[in-house]
Design goal:
The protein is an alpha/beta fold. The protein is about 40% helix and about 15% strand. It binds pyridoxal-5'-phosphate.
């Protein structure tokens, strides 16, 4: 008789986006004339850049010709792409070997799969509020989770507490959902704490491309000693609009001892690589013109973020993020709770955001808006917001 993984029964049902969608649907059917603007979804809206598209087109042509056709590629990614990623890190003063870079179909899969390498008895430390993947993947394995409070007091950037013992630490900077980003001094404290505890940091850099402040690190490896204590996850999803294309990578430094070989073994056993066409498309963002194009796309989102921030400033509403992130995390006015504020925005302004309470206990009373929309829609949404608040 087969037995189930009972840990799945400990997962909380993820109502957040389902509940948002059903509220929006109900409202729309009662008010079919309302033009609803969505500033809630954590997904890009701009199409792929022309450099990416033409690289993918030529890769398709290669696949059509017996002389250039590719079958299975290396599970850990083609050398040409790993070389480009290495060059990208070099451009922010991080030296990597290509054997430390593992190409994958995205950061979410790698964040889940990496747990194959760790015993169930490890205690994990996770910020609250948080990207739900870190929590749920550990619940599925039955690991003990400690939460650290991200709050208004610490600017949603929790710092290590030496009285807390843990084995695996999740950090996401710039953060989803709060948009807050650690500076070098803060990350150095985390690296030192991890060293002192013999712990490992799992660093999610999915939003590094949104960093504009040169004082903020784009990679944890910009911090001295980080290669001894951290694995970094990154993705083409938000950087280059690859959410529907699927491409990411994970850095497992050789300095982490057996982990690099273990991850190689895990990937070569359970994963068969990303399609050649997709890797060619991803590789195109690292050319001079490719980098320019993705910067232009990110600039469109950043302009939206500025429109949102200016409106909140005018209204005297507190927020984090926006500057080095596509997310603006705002404090609901008049001590409203997250869902009441959601209802108010939907009903009075026909604007949809994401209630902070959906990301954890500390998200209550906060609200996430995203810069992933058109400038015209963002401007209109903010004009409506100003009218109702
Ligand atoms: C969007 C996002 C990712 C990227 O996931 P992919 O699987 O690469 O699309 C990773 N981490 C966070 C926090 C995200 O918001």
């Amino acid at each position: 008789m087969y037995k189930l993984n009972e840990n799945y029964s400990n997962l909380k049902e993820s109502y957040l986006f389902a509940q948002i969608n059903s509220k929006v649907k109900n409202f729309s059917s009662e008010h079919p004339e309302a033009k609803i603007i969505r500033l809630g979804i954590g997904d890009v809206t701009l199409p792929l850049s022309s450099q990416v598209i033409s690289a993918m087109h030529s890769a398709v042509d290669e696949m059509a010709d017996g002389k250039t056709f590719k079958g299975y590629g290396p599970e850990q990614g083609y050398e040409f792409l790993k070389e480009s990623i290495r060059g990208y890190y070099k451009s922010h003063n991080v030296d990597l070997e290509t054997a430390e870079i593992f190409v994958s179909d995205g950061a979410k899969s790698d964040l889940g799969n990496i747990l194959d390498l760790f015993d169930k008895s490890n205690v994990v430390l996770i910020p609250d509020p948080v990207y739900p993947v870190y929590v749920d993947t550990n619940i599925m394995d039955g690991r003990k989770i400690l939460f650290m409070n991200a709050s208004e007091e610490n600017g949603f950037l929790p710092m290590p507490d030496s009285s807390v013992d843990c084995d695996i630490i999740y950090l996401c900077s710039p953060n989803n959902p709060t948009g807050a980003a650690y500076n070098r001094t803060q990350l150095k404290e985390w690296v030192d704490y991890a060293k002192a505890k013999g712990a490992l940091i799992l660093f999610d850099a999915a939003y590094e491309a949104f960093i504009e402040d040169p004082l903020l690190p784009r990679s944890i490896y910009e911090i001295e000693g980080a290669k001894d204590v951290a694995i970094e996850f990154c993705s083409f999803s938000k950087t280059a609009g690859f959410t529907g294309v699927r491409l990411g990578y994970t850095i497992v430094p050789n300095a982490l001892g057996p982990l690099n070989k273990m991850w190689l073994r895990r990937q070569t056993t359970k994963f068969n690589g990303v399609s050649y066409i997709v890797q060619k498309g991803g590789n195109a963002i690292f050319s001079e013109e490719g980098l320019k194009q993705i910067k232009e796309n990110i600039a469109v989102y950043k302009k939206n973020a500025v429109v949102i921030m200016e409106t909140l400033d005018k209204l005297g509403i507190k927020y984090t993020g926006g500057k080095n992130s596509p997310y603006i995390w705002l404090k609901c006015p008049n001590q409203m709770n997250s869902w009441d504020f959601f209802d108010l925005l939907l009903e009075k302004a026909n604007v949809v955001g994401t209630p902070g309470a959906g990301f954890g206990t500390n998200g209550e009373g906060w609200f996430r808006l995203t810069a992933f929309n058109t400038l015209a829609n963002t401007q209109e949404a903010m004009q409506r917001l100003e009218k109702v608040l």
